[in-house]
Amino acid sequence: MNRKAPLVNAVYYPSWRVYKDIPPSSLQLHKISTIYYAFAIPQENGSLGFLDEYADAQIPVDGELGCLNALARVKRDNPHLKTVLSIGGSTVDWEHPRTPVEGRHYTALLQACRVALPSPQFLLTTALPCDPSVLRMLDLRTVGSLADHINLMCYDLTGPWSAVAGHHAPLFAATEEGMSSQQGLGLLLAHVPPHRVVLGIPAYARVFPGATAEGDAYEQEDGGNEDDEDDADKEEVEIDYRDVPPEWMAADVLRIDQGRAAAWAVVPRPGKKGQPGYARNTSFVSMDVPATVRIKARFVRAAGLGGLFYWTGAGDAVRHKDSLVAAGFDALHGT
């Protein structure tokens, strides 16, 4: 298929990952087309401010002061890279309009940004969820005409807010009623040229303690007091892909549904101090792995989409053979 631009293989770099000794230079730079720096925060006077001034501008990292300068150095050393400043984050999150009025405000914001950042000199992108009820609040045709890329967040379809355990990033559903990325993607593609749509990949796993299969009830942690002495023993319900224990990826543990592009594992639960055990001693873990990313990349090529992006590049595995970003890049380019 002829394309106006090469396929995107983009990652988000969140500045707070520098505190885990994951600098911008540690990303799979030769497999990345675009780095989104998260986040800049709008100020009341119309300027942009730091999310974390120390991480953004002061911490020594990659021979520079601050992650922004480190990112600029990465770009100088890797001329093929595009860098984009992501504005927002959960505290000023406009990507989930709840009413038609909020949807119109969202479109007006994009229009103002496009005027200030004319094409083709500047790249203007926006992230949107897969939830059709949110997408219907937007004039998608106008959004698609303004944004160079729409980063469709094809993850978090289930999580700690869900009634039962499930896959959090399946491309397709097992039944017509099941949740999948395809629901939001189909709605979006009815209004937006496919090459403007970039499919999102989660570089993290969601863990459902006490569940043994999709659809199971699971044990949800109480909100509790942050100073509670048991907090240190709470189970992780979200784990960066790079931190997933290797035993969860073993051939006799990991399961892959090729038709849905979904991977999962049922794993033993860690014990808690002072407790002899659990009523149910396994957890259901949903995540993407290189095999599912390759399936999604082949779908992107077949559907004429713009490429893939990853939340986050800093959550990806260190080794090339385990890397989601590398798997996506290679499959997008037919290798």
TrEMBL record:
<comment type="similarity">
    <text>Belongs to the glycosyl hydrolase 18 family. Chitinase class V subfamily.</text>
</comment>
<dbReference type="InterPro" id="IPR017853">
    <property type="entry name" value="GH"/>
</dbReference>
<dbReference type="InterPro" id="IPR029070">
    <property type="entry name" value="Chitinase_insertion_sf"/>
</dbReference>
<dbReference type="InterPro" id="IPR050314">
    <property type="entry name" value="Glycosyl_Hydrlase_18"/>
</dbReference>
<dbReference type="InterPro" id="IPR001223">
    <property type="entry name" value="Glyco_hydro18_cat"/>
</dbReference>
<protein>
    <recommendedName>
        <fullName>chitinase</fullName>
        <ecNumber>3.2.1.14</ecNumber>
    </recommendedName>
</protein>
<dbReference type="Pfam" id="PF00704">
    <property type="entry name" value="Glyco_hydro_18"/>
</dbReference>
<dbReference type="InterPro" id="IPR011583">
    <property type="entry name" value="Chitinase_II/V-like_cat"/>
</dbReference>
<feature type="domain" description="GH18">
    <location>
        <begin position="1"/>
        <end position="335"/>
    </location>
</feature>
